[in-house]
Amino acid sequence: MKEYKDGKYTIREYSNGNKHWFLNGELHREDGPAIEYSNGDKEWYLNGKRHREDGPAMEWSSGSKFWYLNGKHHREDGPAIEWTSGNTEWHLNGKRHREDGPAVEWSSGSKYWYLNGKKIFYFEYKILFEDWIEIPDLKYIGPFKRISDVFIELPIEIKKNKLLRVNKK
């Protein structure tokens, strides 16, 4: 390993070609990534935490991208994690969260809904954000007999003033 000063930064160059920038003993760089790997991967840090405001804080040469603010997964205008496989995850302040769709989408088609880090069911999402839910394969057994079984898991504040629709088969 070779260590040297470049302006305010201490730079460590390793024999494998990786370079790390430090300020006061912590990974830190304001004008580029604080870690540059020889394979092309890059990581941005401020004060020892992954952080970048104008793009992903981790960019892998494979194409996967990870957004961070203050060491936590965070992105407001899209998924905070984008894998080259097509898998995506939406995070706010380090917690899986999305109000306009599933917070986790796998390339296989699997989808998972989260609010503030708490996993919710699809029908809960529909009730919260669309004021109703349609359950096409729920067997209709008369007015509100089966619906209460599904609805009972929801917090009381969600149950109030919401309409639940069931397709009658």
Task: Briefly summarize what is shown.
The chain has two domains: 2-129, no CATH class; 130-169, no CATH class. 11% of the residues lie in helices and 35% in strands.
Q: From N to C, what is the helix and strand string? A: EEEEEEEEEEEEEEEEEEEHEHHE
Q: How many helices does DSSP assign?
A: 3
Distance between the termini: 71 Å
Q: What amount of the residues lies in strands?
A: 25-35%
Number of strands: 21
Indicate the overall shape.
elongated
Largest sheet properties: 13 strands, antiparallel
Structural class: mainly beta
Rg, rounded, reads 23 Å
Average residue-wise pLDDT: 82
Q: Helical percent range? A: 10-25%
Task: Set down the secondary structure blueprint.
Blueprint: E1 2-6, E2 9-13, E3 19-23, E4 26-27, E5 35-36, E6 42-43, E7 45-46, E8 49-50, E9 58-59, E10 65-66, E11 68-69, E12 72-73, E13 81-82, E14 88-89, E15 91-92, E16 95-96, E17 104-105, E18 111-115, E19 118-120, H1 122-130, E20 132-135, H2 147-151, H3 156-159, E21 163-166
Parallel strand pairs: 20-21
Antiparallel strand pairs: 1-2, 2-3, 3-4, 3-5, 5-6, 6-9, 7-8, 9-10, 10-13, 11-12, 13-14, 14-17, 15-16, 17-18, 18-19
Describe this structure in words.
With 169 residues, this protein is mainly beta. It folds into 2 domains: 2-129, no CATH class; 130-169, no CATH class. The chain has 3 helices and 21 strands. The chain has helices at residues 122-130, 147-151, 156-159; strands at residues 2-6, 9-13, 19-23, 26-27, 35-36, 42-43, 45-46, 49-50, 58-59, 65-66, 68-69, 72-73, 81-82, 88-89, 91-92, 95-96, 104-105, 111-115, 118-120, 132-135, 163-166. The strands form 5 sheets. Strands 1, 2, 3, 4, 5, 6, 9, 10, 13, 14, 17, 18 and 19 form a 13-stranded antiparallel sheet that branches. Strands 7-8 form a two-stranded antiparallel sheet. The longest helix is centred in the last third of the chain and has 9 residues, at 122-130. The protein is elongated.
